[in-house]
Every structure is written in C-alpha cells, then in structure tokens.
Amino acid sequence: MASKTFFSKSFLSAYRSLRSNWPLLSLHRSSKDHHHHHLKTHLSNLSGKALVVDVEGGLLRSSSTFPYFMLVALEAGSILRGLLLLLLYPLLCCLTQEFAIKIMALVAFAGIKEEKFRAGRAVLPKFFLEATGVVLEVLSEAKIKMCISRMPRVMVEGFLKEYLEVEIVVARELKVFAGYYTGLMEEEADQYRDGVVLMEKMASLHGSILGFGSKSSPHPLLSQCKEVQLVSEAEKRKWHGVLRPNGAAFHNPLVFHDGRMAFLPTPAATLAMFLWLPFALALLLLRCLLFLCLPYSISVPLGAVTGVTNRLLRATPSPRQDGFGGRLYVCNHRTLLDPIYVSGALNRPIVAVTYSVSPVSEALSPIRTARLARDKEEDRRRMEQLLGRGDDLVVCPEGTTCREPYLLRFSPLFAELAEEVVPVALSAGVTMFYGTTASGFKCFDPFYFLANPWPRYEVEFLPAVATGTMVREGRSSCEVANLVQGQIGAALGFQCTALTRKDKYLMLAGNEGVVEQKKKKNLQRSWTSCLMK
C-alpha cells in the first residue's frame, strides 16, 4: 500500500511539473512587473551601442540546458537515447556546469550524421522563443548584438540569427569525424579566445559594450564588457513569457517547426512522458479500434470517454438534393485525421482527396481516399468524376499541415469544380505529441496524435460559397480561393499567408516535399479501386 501511495504521489508530482512547463498550458503571468520595468529601464538606452547577451544566463528564463539537449536526443536520435540522458540526470546534477554540458552533448550528438541534423533550425527555435525573457523586448534597440552560449553552435545559431537577427554568435563547435558528430566539443578556452577577438573588434567599431547575463554562472566573456548587468535565478523565475513565437515583435514569426515533442522536456516532464508511454500504447489501440470498427454515432461518445475531445461549433449541412452531384468541403489542414473528423461531424461517409499518403494510412482509414497526381487537368478530371457520381469530397487545398495559427496558400483548383463549396474551419490541439512531421515517418502521424492524453478537435462548418457564380461573374479561381482562405482564417483567428508546401519542406526537411511516385500503374490501380468501392 505504501508503494502504491509513493508511486501515485511521484507521478502526480511529475505530472504537475509537466503541466507547469507545457507552453500551451502555462498561461500564468507574474504580477511583479517591477522586475521587468527595472531591467527595461537599465537596458532601454541601447541605441548605437553594442550588446553582448549570455543565452543561458540572460536571454532564456531558465539557465538549465537539459531540456534542449533532451530535444536533440529525442528528435535527432531516438527514444532510447532520450531515456539514457534522463537516467544520467542525477549524475549531471553532481557535476560542474562545464562537465555536465560535455556529457549531455556526447549523449545527444554522438553518431548523428552532420548533413541530416536539422533540429537546430526545425525543432529548437520554437522552444527557445517560448523561453525568452524580458531582455527580448529591448534586444532590437542595440546597434549590434552578440550572443554567447555554452551550448553547441548547431543548436543555437539558427534560432539567434533567423528569428532574433543577432549578428554575431559565439558558441561551442562540435567535432565531426567521417561526416558524423562525435559528441565532443571544443574547449571553453578556445571559445573564450575567439570571443575576445570579436569583442575587441566590436569595441573598436561601436565603443563601449554592454553585457547581460546571470549572477549564478556569468560567462567568462562578460568580463570583457565595460558595463555588465547580471540577474539572479530568483529574478529570472519571476519573468513571464513576454511574447508568443508568432508575435509581431519577433523579426521573423515562427510559422513552421518540426518534431514530435509538444512540450518542453524538463527532467520531470520527460519522466512523466516515459511513465505515460505504456498507458499511451493501450489507449492508442483502444481508440483505433473504436473509430475503425464502430459507427460514428457510437465511436464518438466512447472516444470522449477515453479523453478525445470533439467539438462541433455549427450545424452540419445536409446532403445535396438538387441532383447536381455531391458536395465539396474545403478545410484547412491540421493533421492527417482532418477528413475523418469532417466525416464524423457530418455523420456520413465522404471521400478524402489526398496528394500523398502512406499505404499504412490508406489501409487503416475508415473512409475512402482518392489520391491525386499533382497534375491539374488530371486531378480536375478525377475530382469531377467523383462529384458527378454523387460522392461528397473533402479537400485540403493547403497541401500540407501547419501547426501554428497561419493558413498556407490555397490551391485554386477546388474553385473550378463545383457550383458551391462548404468551407470547414478545423482546430486541433495536443498536449504531449504532435501528430504531424516533415522529416519523420508520416505513417505514424495518426498514432502519435491518438497517443496524447487529451487530443482535441474542433470542427466548424461555415456558410456555403457560390464559387460557380463568382467565376462566371469574372472573378478568377485564385481570387475565389483567397476568399475561402480568408473566411476560414477569420473563423479561426489565423493569419493568411502565401507560403506553400514547398516553403515548408525546404525549411524543415531540406527538400521540396515531393515523394517520387513508384509506378503510374499502381497509382491508376489505387484510383480505380476507389471508384469501384
């Protein structure tokens, strides 16, 4: 009995720590704004000056680097690498900061291929931006900015230069052998020597240098600054998140990011995740069986019992009765499960039109799928054929998913197919794992989404848009597509963009996001089987 009580208390403590570190759930704002006012007053007169900021000590709200190495271990490595790093955490607490960082870098990076490592640009910036402190509000006022970090350069440089427009980054270099990271970093003395040379050049060009860092572990390079402002860990704990990653004050808003982790993996949060995994597997199997084997009228209520939250914001449109074929539903793209949730909200089967989906996802889909060929005329013919048969179609004209509150450019083909389309605004929420990826195995996307403790989906059907009438009146299909995009964006509170699938994959995966088709014959067979169902 005592062991059960101890386990329940330990899990509850870890879970509370996980919630406190979850970006989507930690909405508490400190009431002691005089700390912010004091720092902002001290740093406000930066015009024409050079600023040196210690990333761990002055830019981030916590000096702990463990969560960021854990992200590298899990996202660029494997779950076993992450488990090893977690098991080493008690030992890391007994070591000096310098030696602990060396151990974490060795575990996180050893054996990872250099040219395939993209976590520094695709995964970490989201968590760095959410962890930035009050100094960010005045960072842009400095004439030239230099950031120093004890973490490897490949972890911090993309975030600092692309999102904060920092001109100079001084960080540790990782050693590479035969194209793979060894996990060994250059010595701190080498970093110090290079930093001193750069700071001397800054001083000669821009005069005095102002430094900003932490009292508990000031970076040695801050001693080269004429004036230094240090903050304690207690003061940093009172900072709140001054901006969200998509805030306008960032030089470049965060539109795309990759990775499976939806929370900052602090030691307690990571422990809670590993404790949750056995329950997640059982819950995942149960949820899959419910949605695959039972009708929506039964599976949706039972799914809610398991923690799946579904919300329908408006009444569903009825099937067309005018004899002009099926309805065309146009929705934004949040996860691979979008068409299934639209079908469940309608409480009737529909056909999901997709550009590329894995054979595993096709086989497990409870609704019919129709794969397109990325050829406009051929895709038009296929979709018109399905609509003419009376099938209701759902299409995601963005062509790829976007996690942040943005809408990508809508492909205008749907505006040329039907007399009217029904816009559908979709919102999805997760608490532990993201159900999308740009560089991982997409066939696992639905499973990651359903492995969350409380996955959430909101479906809102908007008034039908008479696309056929608009086109006949002289409006182009692109204008109609932008109109539908704007209506969905307004309903969700999302910002419309002209970004495309190609932009996303070039940034996150280093490719254009187009998978080479195997054989045209196989594609035609898949399409024929869809029509025969």
From TrEMBL:
InterPro entries (alphabetical): HAD_RAM2/GPAT1-8, Plipid/glycerol_acylTrfase
Domain Phospholipid/glycerol acyltransferase residue range list: 327-429
GO biological process, any: cutin biosynthetic process
One Gene Ontology MF term: glycerol-3-phosphate 2-O-acyltransferase activity
Topology within the bilayer: Multi-pass membrane protein
Main location: membrane
Alphabetically ordered keywords of this record: Membrane, Transferase, Transmembrane, Transmembrane helix
One annotated Gene Ontology cellular component of this protein: membrane
Transmembrane residue ranges: 268-292
Subcellular compartments: Membrane
Recorded family membership: Belongs to the GPAT/DAPAT family.
The protein's name: Phospholipid/glycerol acyltransferase domain-containing protein
Organism: Zingiber officinale
Lineage: Eukaryota, Viridiplantae, Streptophyta, Embryophyta, Tracheophyta
